[in-house]
Amino acid sequence: MPRSISTALKNHKAQDLTTVCKCWKIRRADGAVEGWTEHDVAIPYDGVSYQPLPAGTPSNYGQRADLSAANLDIEMAYGAGTESLLRGGAYDYAEVWTFEINWADPGQGILKLAYGRLGEVDIGDDQARGEVRGLAQLLATLIGDVYTPECRASLGDSECKIDLSPFTHSGSVDTAASSRVFTISGAAAGKAAGYYAYGQITFTSGANSGLSMQVESYAAVETVSLIEPLPFAVAGGDTFTIRRGCDRRLETCRAFVSAALQGGGSTEGAGLGNRKNFRGCPGLPGLDMAFNVPANQNWTSG
Fold it and tell me: In the chain, at which residue ranges do the beta strands (DSSP E only) sit?
């Protein structure tokens, strides 16, 4: 693929000795833009200051002429301020632009190398590792609906049409057994067992402020269990909002009876609830049906 390059930078790269380095511009999931470079001092370019990669070890960028996905691995150390962003998913699927620049004369422009997105970010031992995947990676993604007995919609989305505001409640942590299991109090408390199962909790204060996690189970004794531990310790008094979940079964969908909870829709009748927006196929046979064999009554001789 042809790449544009200024005459000045092209002439510089043709020299025996160059002052060229790689840079990465990253647009995180929260919209913030930051820049990193393999050089040992910051490089200003186009309104972004590209900071030296802290203890980073970027791999060579591989790109082929076929449709196989190009990739680049970046490992870097991180501090306490970055840890919450990493564990909170701010870098997941972030946009990444890779280019070369003359650090001695940024005014010569850049040589664009690649555009891609970060894959899953691995975190551990004060080191983070991310893989930059090229656009060809999208060709490996299957596109289409998967037919399942359970609903394919997510509670409250444009297909489900349930208004989540009546099912979203505020509360605070009472006591915490761990960063995954704790008891709650406030308006969120007092719900029936299982009410928040498969729902989502978002902390509004404390060490986990701004982070969200799926709820695994909720007991009538006001105990919330999360599907995974939060990255930071949960303490009594931490505030949050929590919303009801859905197990995606038709029986659960029928429990929503009020027209006001259907995004302006109307009920089909008493007891039918939100069934008209159900996106599952409850009559779909399971895999065990593949092992059934036809009966042989029609093949017996007369």
Answer: 20-27, 33-37, 43-45, 48-52, 71-77, 95-102, 110-118, 122-124, 127-134, 168-176, 181-185, 200-203, 212-219, 223-226, 239-243
On average, the pLDDT of the chain sits at 81
Residue, of 1 and 72, whose pLDDT is higher: 72
Q: CA-CA distance, 281 to 274, in Å (whole number)? A: 15
Here the tokens at position 16 are 């025996």
Report pLDDT for 243. 94
What is the amino acid identity at position 24?
Answer: W
What confidence score (pLDDT) does residue 23 get? 92
What torsion, rounded to 10 degrees, do the Cα atoms 121, 126, 127, 130 define? Answer: 20
pTM: 0.62
Which amino acid is it at 31? G
**Cβ(243)–Cβ(168) under 8 Å?**
yes
pLDDT at 133: 73
pLDDT number for residue 270: 44
Distance of CA 147 to the CA centre of its chain: 23
- Give the number of residues written for the chain: 302
194 Ramachandran zone, left/alpha/beta (phi>0; psi -120 to 50): left
Virtual torsion, Cα 195, 198, 199, 200, nearest 10 deg: 140
Q: According to the model, what pLDDT value does residue 204 have?
A: 95
The one-letter amino acid at 281: C
Q: Which domains does the chain have, with CATH numbers?
A: 7-138 (no CATH), 148-164+246-283 (no CATH), 168-243 (2.40.10)
Candidates 165, 167, 161, 164; CA nearest to 266 is: 161
Which of residues 79 and 30 earns the better pLDDT score?
30
